[in-house]
Amino acid sequence: MNVGTLKAVAYLTSVGMLGGIVYVGYEFFTKEVKEMAQGVDHDHTLGILEDVTAPSPPKIVGLDYRGMILPAIRDFDWTGAPPPPPPPPVDPNKGTEELEKKAIPIEDIVTVLAVLGDLEDEGNSFALLGFKPGSTGAERGPGYYYVGDSLPKPDDNIAVFAIRDGGVEFSFADDEREREFLLPPSVSDRVIERVASLDDVKRRAERLNFEASVAAARGDADANAQTEKVNGVFQIGPGDANTFAQDYQRILSEDVSLQTYRDPETGKKAGIKVSSVRPGSIAARHGAMDGDIIISINGDSVTSEQQAMQYVRERSDQTDVWRVRYIRAGQEREEVYHSPDN
Q: Strands 167-172 and 180-182: what pairing?
């Protein structure tokens, strides 16, 4: 076989192999790749993509002015003084124990030796109080106390709130502390017989005469005095009393707004609602607040502004103590007002 024949055979062989490769590639791209594309699971592919953790955002290089730089400049101690020592640990029960120590029961301070009550005018009621041995007032002798009177120092944060039901009710300068009621130790006590004697009535009359002379000597200085709340009892100042007597129509029309209150369940009249109170007014200084519902005065129900005014006018000459029961924030309360001597 000559060289030409070998070249021809090699050429033909190369052409045949190239044609085979082209055919195989054509079959793969037209059939196999198409079948592979048809067999792809899209849900599986989507799951794989979702499982890929997203790259974290790039970190900010620098300092936060408002969160780091400004507090450091503001809080830095530029004096160079050492920092103060840390405060001692706070005992949560310590405050409660101290309050309990200060809140001494009234029965550990005084004894109600006797009472003389006036049902028509509580201002004429008085009680004879003695001080317990061991109390701060043990060296003081017994004394007579009327509604609104405070005990002598250092117990002047305690006052006689009421004299009724054969005993004495005490109030405290701390409005959060509940009032306490105290009865005489025994009805058979000889002190009661002595208090009910003519000598004690004479002492009471001398006290009233003394108080009247003191009030007259004060003159115009006390005539303009305003109302003060002393140990839970409103002591109505002569100045406020005169202002209300002379200008009550303007006060009721401008300083306070009243309306009849009806029980939401029955629809019946049940009191007087204070719709609004002007801050700093005479009504506000006497304890009135928006939303208060006045239900009774000295135990008698009132349901209208006119009825309340008529009630006070008819009894002002005979009554010095006014007990006003009212509802505030759903709770029934009571305030006591003591009229001035004049």
A: antiparallel
pLDDT at 54: 74
DSSP structure string for 273-313: EEEEE-TTSHHHHTT--TT-EEEEETTEE--SHHHHHHHHH
255: Cβ contacts below 8 Å, ≥ 6 apart: 277, 278, 281, 282, 283, 284
What's the farthest any 2 CA atoms get from each other in the chain? Answer: 171
Closest listed residue to residue 294, CA positions, set 274, 309, 314: 274
- pLDDT, mean over the chain: 76
Question: Hunting for tokens 């200060």 — which residue is that?
Answer: 102
Give burial (CB, 10 Å; 0-12/13-18/19+) of 209: exposed
Q: Which two tokens stand for residue 239?
A: 């100045």
Q: State the CB neighbour count (10 A cutoff) for residue 1.
A: 7
Alpha carbon of residue 115 to chain centroid: 36
Edge-to-edge strand list for the sheet holding 158-164: 158-164, 167-172, 180-182
Whether 288 and 331 have beta carbons less than 8 Å apart is answered as no
- Residue 147, pLDDT > 80, answer yes
CB 127 within 8 A of CB 112: yes
Q: Is the pLDDT of residue 290 over 60?
A: yes
- Residue in this structure with the two tokens 């006014």, named with its chain if needed: 322
pLDDT in tens, 91-146: 666 555 554 456 788 888 888 888 887 666 666 778 888 888 777 666 667 788 88
β 167-172/158-164 pair status: antiparallel
Q: Which two tokens stand for residue 43?
A: 């849900």
